[in-house]
TrEMBL record:
Location(s), subcellular: Bacterial flagellum basal body
Domain called Flagellar hook protein FlgE/F/G-like D1: residue spans: 83-181
Protein name listed in UniProt: Flagellar hook protein FlgE
Broad class of the protein's primary localization: other
PANTHER family on file: FLAGELLAR HOOK PROTEIN FLGE (PTHR30435:SF1), FLAGELLAR PROTEIN (PTHR30435)
Organism name: Marichromatium gracile (Chromatium gracile)
Length: 619
């Protein structure tokens, strides 16, 4: 019996040496997990034996278990070297069989698949939306990770977000040499024209202050006006520009903008804001009957004028002092008519000597916005948009202050317009409360751009891609809601758009959650998949296959797939490899212990042999 006990001890010590030697041999193996020899004593009891006097029959190897403690992470310069910091296994596809490993030394094969040195493919959760930086992943399925070495296709701009501050001290830009022009719509209009505005274009035009009425002729699709002789004159076609629901009519030194669709016979009247007043000290016998513009190009027409009645001279002419200058009035039907400085004043009644009369034209007509003239807007900023072919397009946003202290107008214009004249999109009215916070618009505003009107004419489009036709819509949505009106300064805090041009591949990155990104020269990153991790209830029960791989087994429990950093799964470290968790110092000590155990068990056999020889030698 001692021979068998000693022999079992030799076998156990030999197994311990083998396990320790295997650990030492794999001290440099990536992802290797050290093993531990576990032993059990042997008792051979039969029925009726007295347990407390039973002698053991030696030792046997109970199990060799792997220890899944974390190994050190050694950093490399290869983005496809992956390590798991925490629990979990990489999932590999070996010709349809799922294998599991902690060794993350991966490379790319000729077909672009990410594989290990044995050609087994790394498994990932595929993206829901391809070529998207944040697509979401289908965690219910696994697929081989294949890297895309092609160019990143362009995406047309469809949305613009901006955070801009407009000066609260800005004032409306006006032409101080022009008069304010009022615009009224005839009451018979259908109401389809919702708004009309007039801007001074050329205050030197001799007719720009003359009141007259525009009439829309639907039959000929033209606008006409009275030339002063009762004849209706059509407005030249090149002076009528339609852009969306806005019609701009330019004539006689001013431009009228009509919003909506006019009906046949609709009329729109213009008149300068001019006043003539009678001095409070005058007799009530004199009233001002009318004030008319004769020559708006007269340089003195906008100057305030004071007339003082001087009485009749020797020749019977009625005399007035106009700002100290003697002028004569024409008497007709009991009325005094004074024609000076491009205007004509008619007084009814009999004035007394010294009576005063004032004539004024309200200066400060609003100037029409012209993107080519910086004097017509307060602020502008630009950003680059991209069409569906990746061509850059510069969009400039212009901001114009209105007469309302809490209101602005925004225009958008693309560079390269081949329209004559260029037609900027807008205006969009921006209104603010007394705290400088925007109150409208509260939603994004859509602008439609037909790139056939802008160079380069390459067939590209702007806007979101229609999933049915595959064509871009041409609509760009601009969100103005983050614009503020604080303080005296203009500033751009943020200006973003969602388009980009074509990009060439720069490299690949893997983040801590295992998402694999392809990086491109256009600044974009496309997610190609998310590295799938697996875990088991009892990893020590996995079946060892060699080549740093394990397979499922009944003892390990069911496999659970998940994303890195969730549940009990660790994080993925790119550019690093998990080293073996073998502690060489500990293993060397184990060698000494195993050696002594072997020698001691050999001594047991030797002693048993000596005792046996003694018995044999008894005579």
């Amino acid at each position: 019996m001692p021979f068998r006990i000693g022999l079992s001890g030799l076998n156990a010590a030999s197994a311990d040496l083998e396990v320790t030697g295997n650990n030492i041999a794999n001290a440099g193996t990536v992802g290797f997990k050290e093993s531990r020899a576990e032993f059990a004593d042997v008792f051979a009891n039969s029925y009726g034996d007295i347990t407390k006097t039973a002698i053991g029959s030696g030792v046997r190897l109970e199990a060799v278990t792997q220890q899944f403690s974390q190994g050190n992470i050694d950093f490399t310069d290869n983005a496809l070297d992956l390590a798991i910091n925490g629990e979990g296994f990489f999932v590999l596809n070996d010709n349809g069989e799922q294998l599991y490993t902690r060794a993350g030394a991966f490379q790319v094969n000729r077909d672009g698949f990410v594989v290990n040195s044995a050609g087994q493919r790394l498994q990932v959760f595929p993206p829901v939306e391809e070529n998207s930086p944040d697509p979401g992943f289908s965690t219910g399925q696994l697929s081989d990770l294949q890297l895309d070495f092609g160019d990143n296709p362009p995406r047309p701009t469809s949305e613009i977000d901006m955070s801009i501050n407009l000066s609260s001290e800005a004032e409306q830009i006006v032409d101080e040499e022009a008069g304010v022009i009022n615009v009224t719509a005839d009451p018979a209009n259908t109401g389809a024209v919702t708004e009309s505005r007039v801007y001074v274009v050329d205050s030197s035009n001799p007719n720009y202050l003359n009141p007259f009425t525009l009439t829309y002729d639907a039959t000929n699709d033209e606008y006409t006006y009275d030339d002063g002789t009762g004849t209706q004159v059509p407005v030249a076609a090149e002076n009528v520009v339609v852009s969306g629901d806005k019609t701009t009519i330019t004539v006689n030194g001013w431009a009228m903008e009509l919003y909506g669709t006019p009906a046949d016979g609709d009329q729109f009247s213009t008149a300068p804001e001019a006043t003539a007043t009678v001095g409070s000290a005058n007799t009530s016998a004199v009233t001002v009957s009318s004030l008319a513009v004769l020559n708006s190009s007269d340089p003195d027409i906008l100057d305030p004028a004071t007339l003082v009645y001087q009485g009749a001279n020797a020749a019977g002419d009625e005399q007035y002092l106009l700002n100290g200058k003697l002028v004569l009035a024409t008497v007709s039907g009991g009325q005094h008519v004074i024609s000076e400085n491009g205007w004509e004043l008619t007084l009814s009644g009999a004035p007394d000597v010294g009576d005063e009369f004032s004539v004024t034209f309200e200066p400060g007509a609003p100037v029409k916005f012209d993107q080519t003239d910086p004097e017509t807007y307060q602020y502008s900023t630009a950003l680059t948009l991209y069409d569906s072919l990746g061509a850059p397009r510069t969009a400039t946003m212009y901001f114009v202050k209105t007469e309302n202290t809490l209101e602005w107008e925004a225009y958008v214009d693309l560079s390269g317009s081949n329209l004559s004249p260029p037609q900027p999109q807008g205006p969009v009215k921006l209104t603010f409360d007394s705290n400088g916070v925007m109150t409208s618009p509260t939603t994004a505003t859509d602008f439609t751009f037909d790139l056939a009107n802008y160079d380069p004419v390459n067939g590209g489009l702007l806007g979101e891609i229609d999933p049915v036709t595959g064509e871009a819509t041409g609509v760009v949505s601009i969100d103005f809601s983050d614009i503020t009106q604080f303080g005296p300064d203009y500033s751009v805090d943020d200006l973003n758009q969602d388009g980009f041009t074509t990009g060439r591949l720069v490299g690949f990155d893997v983040d801590q959650s295992g998402v694999v990104f392809a990086r491109y020269t256009n600044g974009q990153a496309a997610a190609l998949g998310q590295v799938a991790l697996a875990n088991f209830t009892n990893p020590q029960g996995l079946l060892q296959l060699g080549d740093n791989n394990w397979a499922e087994s009944y003892a390990a429990g069911d496999v659970v797939y998940g994303e890195a950093g969730t549940s009990s799964l660790g994080l993925v470290q790119s550019g690093g490899l998990e080293a073996s968790n073998v502690d060489l110092a500990e293993e060397l000590v184990n060698l000494i212990i195993a050696q002594r155990n072997y020698q001691a068990n050999a001594q047991t056999i030797s002693t048993a042999d000596a005792i046996t020889q003694t018995i044999i030698n008894i005579r």
